[in-house]
Amino acid sequence: MPVYVIKTSSFLPNEPVPNDDMELYLGYINDKPSKSKSIVLRNNGITTRYYALTKGGKPTHTNAEMTALAVKALFKDDPEKLKDIELLSCGTSSPDQMMPSHGVMTHGWLPEAEAIEVVSPSGVCCAGMHSLKYAYMAIKTGDVKLAVATGSERFSGLLVSDVFEEEAQKLKELTDNPFIAFQKDFLRWMLSDGASAFLLSDEPNKEGLSLRIDWIEGVSYANEMETCMYMGGEKEADGTLKGFMDYTPEEIMTKSIFSVKQDINLLSDNIVALGGKKIKEIFERKGLKSTDIDHFLPHISSNFFKSKIYDLVEIYGGGIPYEKWFINLYTVGNVGAASVYLMIDELFHSGKLKKGEKILLLVPESARFSYMYAMLTVC
What we know:
This protein is of the alpha+beta class. The protein folds into two domains: 4-206, 3-Layer(aba) Sandwich (Peroxisomal Thiolase, Chain A, domain 1); 212-220 and 263-378, Thiolase/Chalcone synthase (Peroxisomal Thiolase, Chain A, domain 1, 3-Layer(aba) Sandwich), CATH 3.40.47. 34% of the residues lie in helices and 21% in strands. It has helices at 22-26, 37-44, 63-74, 102-108, 126-140, 156-159, 161-171, 173-176, 178-185, 249-254, 264-286, 306-317, 329-332, 339-348, and strands at residues 4-11, 17-18, 48-49, 87-92, 117-119, 146-153, 194-201, 211-220, 229-230, 233-235, 241-243, 261-262, 295-298, 358-365, 370-378.
């Protein structure tokens, strides 16, 4: 049974935040401007992003609330249609709490909906694609006819200076060990807030365009790779991850266990190469050529990786010229599980799509090196 994306929507909180204003929202660590900020921004190419914060760091929205607002935007022309949803599938890596799940909390913000099935795929950037795949499979198997899939993040609450302040005061890592400081500080200048939603159906739109989902595939290399990006734990000397439940309350505070961290060396050495490995296998198995693709939407965390992905696709898939690429990282920031949704939403409403065109999606996840790929056809 074919599955179609028939509507897309987004919710980006508040006004876009330019580079010069970031610390007005996130705060200063030790009352000093960041030493890594200019380096990271120069490499990632991001010029604006969105925070669910006021200046001074006061929260304005929860993750679940933003996600629900994106879902409501799908039905802005006919809110009563919210009652027709049979499945809500919500992916995020930054839920507002450990329990209940992000999906049911989003459902709680949608009193207009009925009692329905709700799922909450976890993970990092791939969580949004897992959410999409669950909704896709539910329709493809005939379990439901109408489903909503979402990707969302609210990272800003983890990026404010208070999360880093006590550790910085105690260990003075910003001076004594710049690498460790960069490892923890660097993601502050990468991540953004927002939510996006897709309405999936077993029938295409009678008028206007739809996106048929031809296939969605994923792969994890955790069997051979150690943890790269993490939150709620700390990497040990042997590369294993020690989870928050095995730390004392004092250690959780002083080691900033709940800040987002990334092993930058492990990331730069492996994230592109492993993603290219799977592209090669998919292209060969499906008999695909780069000339089959009209629009390429790779989720990249930084402009630094753009040319590296280009080179690998050229080696493995024959090359996709930049004029076929569509990336909005520079204006919305890295919104993790929502990034690929935000790209599709912007492209879907851009007026650039024509019936019969093919859209290739690539979503890497550095957490322990997972990847999701999909092909959509404009119809």
